[in-house]
Amino acid sequence: MKQSLVVKAPLVDTHAHIFRRDLPFIAGAPNPFERDYTAEDYVRELDTAGVSYGVIAAASFLGSYHDYTLAALARHRRLRATVIVGPDAPQADLREMNQAGVVGIRLATGNMASPPDLRSPDYRRLLGIVAELDWHVHVYGRRDHLPPMLDALDSAGVKTVVDHFGARDNEAGLESESFKAILRAMRKGRTWVKLSGPYLSEELDHRAMAARLLSEAGPTRLLWASDWPFVKLNGKLTYCQTIEWLNDWVPNEAVRLQMGKNALELYRLPRAA
Question: Pfam families of this UniProt entry (predicted)?
């Protein structure tokens, strides 16, 4: 690996997935993977690239199954995680997961015809617990889902993290309603955006999107993530390539350092790397 990547490696990778092919995938979810992707595999990627900490993002194809993730957190204290739960999740269970290193819930709505009603009594209860635990809501949805979801989450007073530039496709560009909704939410001070997953929207100019996010919301609203093991590509990408992308999107090293500090605080990681 090039020495420059070690020097410029981010402090925190805020999004990766771990799973085995024999885990309980939700009904109808494809399982085309050529191998397992374990926590130990992920930690080796972090070490090779010089990244200090990592965050396990709840995989939508595993639904609310998170035993494998909790076991990984117990083995690797440098990791944090988000989980997928229903709006009726017991408060005691969420408190227990908080002690284990879970720092948020994930709402993945890309395959839903409409987003969940986050203003319903059940979701208001869940979001109240999320706010009390100082967790965040990790959002990944269709571009038409994002504006109402972001408005509802802001009304609930929770921290929000938007995946992959907020772009699931090649139409969610700088002038789209979803991107404008993201900028509005970021300016309110409780929303962050992950610079990650450019292969999910290949026709967009991600460097221009990063510059717009930075100019409108400042460096304290940005995070970086690898999206390892690149599920849509079945692992066919190198981890260090994702760091090269970050260095291209955000040439200013001071901004990249601030992004790492953002992640240390949001994901409740030790200050000393």
Answer: Amidohydro_2 (PF04909)
Q: How would residue 1 be classed by pLDDT, with cut points 50, 70 and 90?
A: very low
Above pLDDT 70, what percent of the chain?
96
Residue 30 resides in a domain: yes
In a domain, 68, yes or no: yes
How many domains are contained in the chain? 1
Per DSSP, helices labelled H in the chain are: 3-8, 39-49, 67-75, 91-100, 121-132, 146-156, 177-187, 206-217, 239-249, 253-266
Does this model's pTM top 0.85? My answer is yes
Residue 37 is classified by DSSP as: B
Q: Which residue range forms the structural domain that includes residue 110?
A: 3-266
Residue 272 lies in a domain: no
